């Protein structure tokens, strides 16, 4: 038996490149650190991987000639020629990665206006859906209600939702989902609020845990149900792992609120804290975990290899701690890391130089692809152990029965391990600053 082996490595030209397969042996394995995979030890189902259609990302895409714009969508969403994205996210109203503050409801008497989305965002999502073929699961998140619904009277700098506007905002979110669906953009899920504990200089809105619980229980949940939208998955928190358990458990411990909630979304900006995901999963095993945002802050640094390694570390950590899907932030940005209307520059897996009409894949693109191209929607994460020598790994079984194991080495020297699968084994070596995906034939 052989395992197909795909590699990306800093110090070679390998970029999702096939290299010599691994030969599987029987009998005693060598005295090496052990990665032990139990093919019968199935854990959570994997929904897939994806990124965000922000107004900024879609503006950058629109700055390119049509064939180059199509090539980027192919690179992300095509199941064979690309890296097989099947998840996506976008924002309700503007966010920091927009061209300025704007809302779909400019006043108390205004009706829903999706014209801003039809300029660039919806066309890009439609293009991705056409390329993907299979349905894309789209998650939508508000950064702020319209200014007139808030205590602060502005979309930026925090503030809270006015108590008198809770029903209004809940109904507005229902209208947004229905309006987008009428425009041919199917919504899979909704988060209550992006980063509800962050008072940002850009669009933000603060909720305490109890305020989020009460809004879900008394306003948003009933509104979604009354509108016939209760099949849309509702996620709480949508902020960092550090407080994911403490925040989510306030909502999920209330049965009247929890019945409306599919699961919890979270980000990476506070650090690893993967153990908090375990704690939340074990406390509420019937609810779900979804990574909803992560990116490198501080602008673009072309060619930096640590970009991809950070992604692999977090994807492996999240999947090994019950996460079911993984969403990157902006699909593409310009060479400065924008546009961003408050100067919050970030990096992205694809960087576009519109003046030259070219685009570049960062290491993060290749590293994400080691998961998203090969761990397919409907896969089951398998129980596996870590080698303990610096190699990080995760294993999954695809719906067709094929086995997928991703192994990453972020260190400065090659690392070896004995990979054992149900008693059979192979000796595996991963070069310094490299990642490998191993694929076994369907059983």
Q: Tell me the count of domains.
A: 2
CATH topology of the largest domain: TIM Barrel
The proportion of residues forming helix, as a percent range, comes to 25-40%
* Tally of contiguous helical segments: 11
**Approximate strand percentage:** 25-35%
CATH A-level architecture of the largest domain: Alpha-Beta Barrel
Q: If you compute it from the alpha carbons, what radius of gyration comes out, rounded to the nearest whole angstrom?
A: 22 Å
- Subunit arrangement of the protein: single chain
Total count of strands: 20
CATH superfamily caption of the largest domain: Glycosidases
How would you characterize this protein structure?
This protein is of the alpha/beta class and 443 residues long. It is built from eleven helices and 20 strands. A nine-stranded mixed β-sheet has the order 2-1-20-17-16-15-3-18-19, with helices on one face. An eight-stranded parallel β-sheet has the order 10-9-8-7-6-5-4-11. Helix 9 links the parallel strand 9 and strand 10 (288-293). 52% of the residues are buried. The mean pLDDT is 97.
């Amino acid at each position: 038996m052989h395992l197909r082996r795909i590699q990306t490595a800093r110090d070679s030209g390998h970029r999702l490149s096939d290299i010599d397969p691994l030969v599987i042996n029987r009998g005693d394995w060598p005295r090496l650190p052990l990665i032990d995979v139990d093919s019968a030890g199935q854990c959570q189902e994997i929904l897939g991987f994806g990124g965000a259609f922000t107004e900024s990302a879609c503006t950058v895409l629109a700055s390119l000639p049509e064939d180059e714009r199509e090539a980027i969508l192919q690179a992300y969403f095509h199941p064979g020629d690309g890296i097989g994205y099947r998840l996506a996210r976008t924002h309700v109203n503007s966010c920091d990665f927009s061209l300025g503050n704007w809302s779909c409801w400019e006043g108390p008497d205004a009706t829903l206006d999706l014209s801003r989305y039809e300029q660039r965002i919806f066309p890009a999502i439609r293009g991705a859906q056409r390329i993907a073929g299979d349905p894309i699961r789209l998650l939508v998140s508000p950064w702020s209600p319209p200014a007139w619904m808030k205590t602060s009277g502005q979309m930026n700098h925090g503030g809270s939702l006015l108590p008198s506007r809770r029903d209004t905002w809940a109904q507005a979110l229902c209208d947004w989902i229905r309006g987008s669906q009428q425009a041919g953009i199917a919504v899979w899920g909704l988060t209550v609020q992006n980063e509800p504990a962050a008072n940002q200089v850009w669009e933000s809105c603060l909720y305490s845990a109890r305020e989020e619980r009460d809004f879900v229980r008394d306003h948003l949940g009933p509104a979604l149900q009354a509108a016939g939208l209760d099949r849309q998955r509702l996620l709480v928190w949508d902020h960092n792992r550090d407080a994911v358990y403490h925040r989510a458990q306030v909502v999920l411990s209330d049965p009247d609120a929890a019945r409306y909630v599919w699961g919890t979304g979270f980000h990476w900006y506070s650090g690893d804290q993967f153990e908090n995901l375990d704690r939340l999963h074990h406390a509420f095993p019937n609810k779900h975990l979804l990574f909803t945002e992560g990116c490198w802050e501080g602008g673009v640094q072309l060619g930096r290899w640590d970009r991809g390694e950070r992604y692999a570390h977090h994807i492996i950590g999240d999947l090994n701690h019950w996460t079911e899907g993984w969403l990157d932030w902006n699909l593409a940005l310009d060479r400065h890391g924008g546009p961003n209307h408050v100067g919050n520059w970030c990096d992205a897996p694809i960087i576009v130089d519109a003046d030259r009409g070219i685009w570049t894949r960062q290491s993060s693109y290749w590293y994400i692809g080691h998961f998203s191209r090969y761990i397919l929607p409907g896969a089951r994460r398998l129980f596996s152990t870590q080698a303990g020598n610096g190699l990080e790994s995760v294993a999954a079984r695809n719906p067709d029965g094929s086995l997928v194991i991703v192994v990453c080495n972020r260190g400065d020297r090659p690392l070896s391990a004995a990979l054992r699968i149900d008693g059979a084994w192979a000796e595996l070596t991963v070069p310094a600053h490299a990642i490998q995906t191993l694929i076994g034939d369907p059983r």
